[in-house]
Specification:
Helix content is 16%, strand content 39%. It is built from 2 helices and 9 strands. Strand 8 and strand 9 form a beta hairpin. The protein is flat. 15% of the residues are buried. The model has no long low-confidence stretch (mean pLDDT 91).
Amino acid sequence: MVSSFANFEDTRGPLSLSITECKRIASQFLYKLYPDANRYFYINEVISDTENHKVAFHFTLIYEGIPFGLAYLSVNATTGNIDSFFGPDLDPLTLSQLQTLPAISPEQARKRFISAFELELLWDNNYKENSDEYYELVYKQSSRRISYIDAQTGEIIWSKLH
């Protein structure tokens, strides 16, 4: 399956397609790749580049109300051809195999986050423009930072970066 391509040739044709006509062409292309495209692809931005005769469509991909990626497609308004397509990182056809119901609630995740969140009391070297350097007493998150909480297991995933 095609995941991305780009045509860098500056091709001009005899057409002068409207945004609506370009949208129809873009939709037809998506439906050929993804027969259930209307379940996943939601247009969040349309950019008409009249200088280059292109209409670009930016899509957010959503499954079961959960965003999972972005896609981009441009149509040449003078030829009706798809000039570029950058598909999602995750194939929408595999989404039906994924568990979309979290095992823990947002409140449970929040409690886990708060219980694991560590603060340190530190003197912070500070300065303001056109004034002397000074120190102030602050609480900062410790060097061990939470990256995320797994919604299926409730496990706290720690960042590897400090």
